[in-house]
């Protein structure tokens, strides 16, 4: 028996570098969580999340997870960590303000810890129906060595996850002249 939230390959959409795994009727999304690392793929994912939230009249939570170092060796490390935390808080507020230009009810949240674990915990705490993540589009060895937050969230989430791929490099169109005979 298939679990109701388990992926159904026939229902996984893949459109324009975006995939929605564990699909359910779109009208049931009332709370959307979008995670950000403030990069271009995350901004693109946030834009998708705002569009969905607008159309579905859903709540939107913008989450940034500050990865904590495993060991702090000196007290000055905590000072620089505090400065990093403050900079992340300011950047989160700027990004939330950008999204509020299109959607009035955007909540910005910052957590500390392992990104995939914190994303899933925040989704549970907020009662999110959908998680939206930007992806770098790494493949092969770079992904294996660096890991993928999106991949871990996809594997562990009990709710649908929309992944939005990084925009591909676009080459400028070239004019080709016909050969001279």
Structural description of this entry:
- Residues 1-16, 18-22 and 169-179 have low confidence and may be disordered.
- The protein is built from five helices and seven strands.
- By secondary structure, it is an alpha/beta fold.
- The radius of gyration is 19 Å and the shape is globular.
- Strands 1-2-7-6-3-4-5 form a seven-stranded mixed β-sheet, with helices on both faces.
- It has helices spanning 40-56, 75-100, 115-126, 140-146, 149-156, and strands spanning 13-15, 18-21, 31-36, 59-66, 106-112, 130-135, 161-165.
In short:
The protein is an alpha/beta fold and 181 residues long. It contains 5 helices and 7 strands, in the order E-E-E-H-E-H-E-H-E-H-H-E.
**CATH fold-level assignment:** Rossmann fold
Annotated CATH architecture: 3-Layer(aba) Sandwich
Report the end-to-end length measured between terminal Cα atoms.
68 Å
Quick check: average pLDDT? Answer: 77
Helix content: 25-40%
Q: For the report, how would you describe the main beta sheet?
A: 7 strands, mixed
State the secondary-structure class: alpha/beta
- Give the number of domains: 1
What fraction of the residues are assigned to beta strands by DSSP? 15-25%
Order of helices and strands: EEEHEHEHEHHE
Q: What is the top-level CATH class?
A: Alpha Beta
Low-confidence stretches: 1-16, 18-22, 169-179
SS field, number of helical segments:
5
Global geometry: globular
Radius of gyration: 19 Å
Number of strands: 7
Strands of the biggest beta sheet: in what spatial order?
Answer: 1-2-7-6-3-4-5
């Amino acid at each position: 028996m298939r679990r109701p939230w388990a992926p159904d390959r026939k229902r996984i959409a893949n459109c324009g570098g975006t995939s929605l795994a564990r699909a359910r009727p779109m009208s049931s999304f009332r709370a959307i969580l979008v995670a950000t690392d403030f990069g271009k793929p995350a901004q693109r994912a946030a834009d998708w999340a705002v569009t969905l939230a607008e159309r579905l009249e859903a709540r939107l939570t913008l989450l940034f997870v500050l990865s904590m170092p495993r060991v702090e060796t000196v007290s000055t490390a905590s000072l620089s960590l505090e400065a990093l935390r403050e900079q992340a808080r300011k950047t989160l507020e700027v990004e939330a303000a950008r999204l509020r230009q299109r959607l009035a009810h955007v909540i910005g949240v910052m957590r500390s810890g392992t990104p995939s674990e914190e994303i899933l915990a925040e989704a549970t705490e907020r009662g999110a129906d959908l998680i939206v993540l930007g992806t770098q589009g790494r493949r092969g060895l770079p992904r294996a060595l660096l890991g993928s937050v999106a991949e871990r969230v996809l594997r562990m989430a009990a709710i649908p996850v929309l992944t939005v791929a990084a925009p591909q490099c676009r080459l400028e169109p070239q004019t080709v002249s016909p050969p001279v005979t």
